[in-house]
Amino acid sequence: MDVEIITIGDELLIGQVVDTNSAWMGLALNDYGFRVIRRTAVGDVEEEILSAIDAARRRAPLVMLTGGLGPTRDDLTLQALCRYFGCRLHFSETIYADIEEFFRLRGRPVNELTRLQAMVPDRCTVIRNRAGTAPCTWFEREGFTLISMPGVPSEMQWLMTNEVLPRLAKQFHRDLYIRHQTCWVRDYSESELAMLLSGFEDGLPSFVKLAYLPQAGVIRLRLSASGTEAETGDGAVTALQAALERLLEGHILVIGDRPVEVIVGERLRERGCTVGTAESCTGGAIAALLTSVPGSSAYFAGSIVAYANAVKQQVLGVTEDDLRQCGAVSREVVEQMAKGALRVLGCDCAIATSGIAGPDGGTPDKPVGSVWMAVASKDSVTSRRYQFGALRAQNIQRATLTALLMLLEKL
Residues 296, 303: contact at Cβ < 8 Å? Predict the structure, then answer.
């Protein structure tokens, strides 16, 4: 079944908040055999919300909507939905009791504005929200279904996981089977990889597509199959994945579409190793990414953000001569940083970065975007220079991902 997602909020349109809801919902719906055909974002304007719903209804029999359910004046979703479906709001004692309990557990009183969230449309199914105060509303009319959920990601995810997806699976016959298989490929540019796999792509069955998802230093290849159960059975996708692996032997880092920090954590656990970081230009971003994974305390030892040269010297043992003669952004310095992290943090392996993130500080020999990285173990150290771009935030992000890929390669 085709699905359209509508997200509501001025903050999404001006870039103040990034729409993570659509991405999460798309993955979850795919797993249940629903195909997202479009994602639309609209502002907090009632007429725009109505127009988006009407347009979506002509494209898809199921529309998922998030946002605009708060208690403030700019939250207009329920008002728009009542107009669209010919409803009126009424006070729900059940929802109000949920809201009171939610606030009681947090030691806060329910005020009049929050009390308004117990006003729900009278021509829909109201689904209680155990993770927040705004309930989910489920509308149906003449073969069209619209489900409205809060825009707070944690609340939307709880409702989707515990209420919405199980109800959708029960109500709608699964007529579409979707399978994805992803692998991470190194050593190729996107165009080089596309040329290499041209013959493979020509031989794909009609229900399978190959997508290229480039990132810094790596490309994710995704095989996607959609169709009937017979067509998209795991056997067909598995056979195609095996053929792809044979073509790319020696160049596949990992199979699966987990985030790289999760993959690194899995490898460290498998080998019983610990890791630490010594970061200059990345400013602790590598450590933050590694520790974002639950259970990372099992393998993450610690981090030293050695931004100043004095810290590189006094904490990590980088020599004054190498800093003066080679500069902070150099092979010599970054290797000493990595070895120093091994010693100070007592870990099995360490990542070190030193570079010029920008927007200034570059020289003809070391322009903005120049980054040296090293990965050290007790037996060896590997270092490389990378040249990224001119944008500071992008340089830090790319350096962080590339450093984790270097560690993954060493593991």
Answer: no
